[in-house]
Amino acid sequence: MTRTFRTFRTDYFVRALIAAVGTRGDVQPALALALELRKLGHAVRLCISPNFVEWAKSLGLEAVPMGVEMRMPGRKSGPMPTLTPEELRRQRESMPDLIADQFETIGAAVDGCDVIVGANAHQYAAPSIAEHAGVGCVTAVYAPVALPSTDLAPPPPPGQAIEPQHGQRLERARARSDQSQPPPAQHGPDR
Q1: pLDDT digits (tens, 9 = 90+) for 114-146
Q2: Within the chain, which residues score under 70 in pLDDT?
Q3: Which of 12, 138, 116, 10 is nearest to 66 (CA)?
Q4: Which domains does the chain have, with CATH numbers?
Q5: Strand boundaries in the chain, DSSP class E
């Protein structure tokens, strides 16, 4: 699909492309950032989940769809079902190539921008496209626990049990974090 974009005016301070995929909790902070940047005189363009494009446009923002509609699933009572490896494989095969879509959408939208702001942890294409286009790139992660590291493995797929060593790594990471924090401030006459 070919996407067309307006040409950015040149009398703005910064021309920013904000890319955010996910549910409302992922996209709404990006919209708030876009509105604040615009209020400060910057130009903003958005690549966001399809179900939020009309909302962004109703706020006067330029937005194009990226990825698939992301909505929180309805929560049923009872335990999460355990998926078999075959069921997981079928689910993966039925999903569109969301990474390729990010490269296509952000790649088409970056023209005329000075910086890409990748909002949340699912920014697979933004850093590469920014480097290729010679523009800046910032990744804003609302919940840094979503970034896997050697100390914190990614969570298991939905429906799969958490392995005991995952919890142990999390406790070690928390302990190191607690050790690196300054002591709490003393208040009152005993300080």
Answers
A1: 999 998 877 889 999 999 999 999 988 877 655
A2: 1-12, 71-77, 144-158, 162-191
A3: 116
A4: 15-72+81-146 (3.40.50.2000), 148-182 (no CATH)
A5: 15-20, 43-48, 62-65, 115-119, 136-140
